[in-house]
Design a protein that fits this description.
The complex is a heterodimer of chains A (212) and B (10). Chain A contains nine helices and two strands, in the order ααααααβαααβ. By secondary structure, chain A is mainly alpha-helical. Chain A has one domain. The longest helix of chain B has 4 residues. Classes of the chains: A mainly alpha (212), B mainly alpha (10). At the A-B interface, α1, α3 and α7 of A face α1 of B.
Chain lengths: 212, 10
């Protein structure tokens, strides 16, 4: 563990709390892509199958359980508790275009041909593009509630902070995980446009609005 | 037993 990864994990944790807080205080999941959230459930469930086989630390195990549980809870909030506020008609990104290619990539690039390793690889690739339905929705509506942008910024910062973690691990342990690094770079890259608007508008106190 | 790197990252 190093400071970058720890801050990344905290940022990830914060993003989930911000999202749940937004849904509960506004009593609405308006502006949140159900598809992105559903993909996250798939990401966490497929990645953390190692909960049954590998024990790393209490920290590691609790975080994994928290990410699975909280992502399922968010789906519950969206599909049951605040269902009327969820508008599928603007959440139109075709998720199958993400899952298909990621499944192919996972079959080609993995660290061993076992069910858990291929699913782990799939989860890494899927996570890197999971935000696309959400960003697509943002693009379509052209604006977002400020709290939603804080959620996205924290979520984007999580993988961005893993990049210095990987550099650090390379120099301190000689450890390289090419699958995670490649996917992590792609994932962070997808946020660059968003980060630009977030830093130049939202953090200056303006509303998040995309140019028409 | 050594834990492979990708199991300790989240």
């Amino acid at each position: 563990m190093n400071i970058f990864r720890f801050l990344g994990d905290l940022s990830h944790l914060a993003s989930i709390f911000i999202l749940i807080h937004k849904i509960q205080t506004t009593r609405s999941c308006r502006g949140i892509s159900f598809k992105t959230q559903a993909v996250y459930v798939a990401v966490f469930v497929t990645r953390y199958l190692d909960l049954f086989t590998t024990f790393v630390s209490v920290y590691n195990t609790s975080m994994k359980i928290f990410f699975i549980a909280s992502s399922c809870y968010i789906l519950y909030l969206m599909k049951v508790r605040f269902r009327p506020t969820n508008d599928p008609s603007i959440d139109t990104f075709r998720v199958e275009y993400l899952v298909g290619p990621c499944a192919v990539l996972a079959l080609i690039f993995n660290y061993g041909y076992s069910v858990t390793e291929v699913l782990w690889s799939l989860s890494i690739f899927l996570e890197s593009v999971a935000i696309l339905p959400q960003l697509f929705m943002l693009q379509r509506t052209g604006e977002a509630e400020t709290i939603t942008t804080h959620y996205l910024a924290a979520l984007g910062a999580y993988r961005a902070l893993y990049i210095p973690n990987w550099i650090y691990r390379y120099f301190s342990e000689g450890y390289v995980d090419p699958i995670s690094v490649t996917a992590g770079l792609v994932q962070t890259g997808l946020y660059l446009d968003f980060f630009y608007v977030y830093f130049t508008k939202v953090l200056q106190g303006q509303k998040f609005e995309l140019p028409a | 037993e050594e834990v492979p790197g990708h199991h300790d990252e989240l």
